[in-house]
Specification:
single chain, about 210 residues, alpha/beta, CNF1/YfiH-like putative cysteine hydrolases, six-stranded mixed sheet, four-stranded mixed sheet, binds zinc ion
């Protein structure tokens, strides 16, 4: 396998239009998960139909695994054997879903962590991401270096926390997009900027 990655900008809000845009952009079968802020990792093949989960992986050319986001962190993992797409909001980040997916690829395909490349896509930046103590507490003491405090509010740097977990498990090639979905709300959908009427970006990895 020689997986490539793709990060979309704003896609049409309307579902049918979005489907059409995605089928134009993606060169194979695009598999997306239900995304429930959990830690279920699903395998995708040519017969995959959407199920509840927050990470998908595949080892099949022509199958692309993707993630929908609009402030949450999209993490794509690529290697010679498999590709994965991970949805990491604060809950997924706290549950270390990107790290768990990378570990699963290592175990399943006998890869060493250095053989996996991580691509962390556009998401909300630390300045724009203001939360209460609940999020900081869930992320735990190891993430404290990546959380700024302003008065009663906390500003976690979710992409840095995800990169930290991955680096800690041994990944060496971690590529982080500098784009913030909220700072660049003209280009990307942002839950914080556009509210519940927002659309999504889709990011995917695969070979085909
Ligand atoms: Zn920002």
């Amino acid at each position: 396998m020689q997986p490539t990655v793709f990060f979309s900008q704003k896609l049409p809000r309307e579902a049918e239009e979005r489907e059409r845009a995605l089928s134009r952009l993606c060169p194979g079968k695009l598999c997306l998960a239900g995304q429930v802020h959990g830690e279920t990792i699903l395998y995708a093949d040519h017969n995959y139909t959407a199920r509840a989960g927050d990470a998908l992986y595949t080892d099949l050319p022509g199958v692309f695994v993707g993630v929908k986001t609009a402030d949450c962190v999209p993490v794509l993992l690529t290697s010679r054997a498999a590709a994965a797409a991970v949805h990491a909001g604060w809950r997924g980040t706290a549950r270390r879903i990107a790290e768990k997916t990378a570990r699963l690829l290592c175990e399943t395909y006998r890869l060493s962590p250095e053989e996996i490349t991580a691509h962390i896509g556009p998401c909300i930046c630390q300045t724009c991401y203001e939360t209460d103590g609940e999020v900081a507490e869930a992320l735990g003491p190891e993430a404290a270096a990546y959380i700024a405090r302003r008065g009663a509010k906390f500003h976690p740097d979710l992409r840095a926390v995800n990169a930290h977990w991955l680096r800690n498990m041994g990944l060496r090639d971690i590529r982080v997009s500098p784009d913030c979905t909220r700072c660049l709300a003209d280009v990307y959908w942002s839950h914080r900027a556009h509210g519940s009427g927002r659309g999504v970006q889709v990011s995917w990895a695969g070979d085909g």
